[in-house]
Amino acid sequence: MVTRGDTMTVRSADLADCPGIVKVAEDSGEEFSTDDYLIGRPPQGWESLVAVDEASSVLGWLEGTLDGHVADHLAHPAHPPPHAYIHAMAVAKENHRRGIGRQLLAEFVRRARRAGLTWLALTPMDGAGKEDRALFFRAAGLRCVDPRGPNQGMVAELAELLPSSTAGASPTKGDR
């Protein structure tokens, strides 16, 4: 499925997107593993999504799995595996607060629901900006497993995450 916003499209990454994904990952200031993209090959068996503008420039990227078994502390007995898990997500800094991250997340959630999954987990990256990342995911409906903060991970029941009526909503505080 392709999701279209006012000036962007969210879709599966292809070979031509690899240099843009590496650039967004590097520009984010985080330490993402982009080895597969450096050699022009998105990871096999993973969902690799990009948000692109009209010129096909990569504005943001999300990488996750739809067939995972999350760590015990992220699991929920009412939601047996497989689980959806977000491994990486980045939006170019100059494009923060335009709803790009929300659109990437919404497309990943749609794909997870379509695959019959009911549970999503992630662990926000450490480092500068961790609180902003946690705010973004909280605004989208994820909750921290540990009430003291996101260090131990964040989870959500897919049925309650990003209702379709808000998938294309304007960016809110914490949106990337």
Would you mind describing this structure in some detail?
The chain is α+β, with helices and mostly antiparallel strands and 176 residues long. It has a single domain, classed as 3-Layer(aba) Sandwich (Aminopeptidase). Helix content is 23%, strand content 28%. The chain contains four helices and eight strands, in the order ββααβββαβαββ. It has helices at residues 18-27, 35-38, 100-114, 130-140; strands spanning 3-4, 9-12, 47-52, 58-68, 83-91, 119-122, 143-146, 149-157. The protein has an eight-stranded mixed beta sheet with strand order 1-2-3-4-5-6-8-7. Strand 5, helix 3 (100-114) and strand 6 (119-122) form a beta-alpha-beta unit. It is globular and about 45 Å long. The protein starts with a strand and ends in a 19-residue tail after the last strand. The relative contact order is 0.17. The model is unreliable at 164-176 (pLDDT under 50).
